[in-house]
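@channel anyone free to eyeball this complex?
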Amino acid sequence: MGKRPPKYSAGALVKHGLTRGDWPRMWRRPEMRDSYDVVVIGGGLHGLATAYYLAENHGITNVAVVDKGYIGGGGSGRNTAIVRSNYLTPEGVAFYDRSLDLYNTMATDLNLNIMFSRRGHLTLAHTDSALRTMHWRAEVNKLQGIDSSVIDPQEVKKQAPSLDVSSNTRYPIMGALYHPPGGIVRHDAVVWGYARGADHHGVHILQETEVLDINVEGGTGPGGKGAGGRVTGVKTSRGDINSPVVVNCTAGWASLISNMAGVPLPITTHPLQAAVTEPCKVFLPTVVVSGSLHVYVSQTDRGELVFGASVDPVGTYRVNGTLEFTEELAGHVLELMPGISKMRLLRQWSGLCDMTPDYSPVMGFTPVEGYLVDVGWGTYGFKAGPVAGETLAETIATGRTADLIAPFGIERFTEGDLVGEKGAAAVGH
Amino acid sequence: MIVVPCPNCGPRNSGDLRNCGELVPRPDPSTASLVEWREYLYMRKNPADWVTETWYCRGGCRRYFTIERNTATNEIRGQEAS
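replying in thread with the prediction:
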């Protein structure tokens, strides 16, 4: 176990300010060992959270997190940083609410300011059917003790005065689902916090280490892989690692990694584009989402508006931005907030989403012993990161699927027991 | 932008068409087991490589056709009506 570096505190800040001493590195660059108890593929939020909770909650510290690039460079650094728990299915609500709880205490738990701003979350309804779904969600939420209710356009105007709630628009706002506990978090800080926490416990974070193959023996598929097999380790660009447990937390690349173990996934990879404007004075106090207009928007602490959309309709691993996206986005945003027509976009980017048919993740054990997945996170992986890590760590440590993730097993696709979250997750955020 | 060659309407922006995803052989519904059927419905190879896929020309001739596209680069080759 590594020596605990000094905590971040006001005292430490003053001391470093006066002495101009270097701050300790948040995580080390360790030498790779030949074997680990658990290898986590993918150094994003989910992979690092899994490693952190394995060490923190279960004392399993002989863990490696391998990433072909740098940590937090995939979806964890490209999402729009929105968190909420007002989902549609009871399974989804329970799961995401636990995540929100973890976000709530995370700054203290990880000793790093993640800048969680619980500013409230509005999901606008522009049609009767959307309003009906909002009522449905609100009732499911209330039953599980989640603060969530349907409000009328006048109340929407009070929450977000810049929204056009008049009825002479193409998509008039007929109401909204209001979810006060929702908000935004500084996503990079969450990644760094988990990396630092895991590193303190002795977890090895191996960046620029690409997994080339997963070693499986005794399976029924080609090369001894596939169902019935057992994981023995991974082959990486820096050498082989022996490990009885390999976890796939690779989001958009999940299918490619899973095929190495001979476990097919019900996943297609789509890019999701987002954009940010130049900064301006604070005028948007809540997170605003419109499913019908395929847009969600929040204002950062720097004053920039961050926009996200639904996934691109054509599945691809290529992450370049398109003009179609910005055009459509601008049209839809101006429909909601005509007042910002003079604002300029600063930049746009895209990230890869691993979409499942039912808009719920695929988590837990697979037909290959020792190979676990935490994939299918589509467009909602950021808000679920902490609870995904916590439950996956519990599953690995106890050898038993954690209750919260039991509905999300890969077998649901062959058993026909899907968890339909499209109504709350498609453009959810 | 991805330009898709419709066999009938010529090159079109992908936004004019619908991508129906990779071509998966359909088992005989009368003999397929539930597991086989659900694998046909849900499981995908999702490679970062050449993939044979179906497109629907929704903004034009409304025909279905298959092409090969490289999902890592979005290059397109070959086409046939289906």
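from a first look: Chain A touches chain B at residues 253, 255-256, 259, 264-269, 313-318, 322-324, 357, 413-414, 416 (CB under 8 Å).
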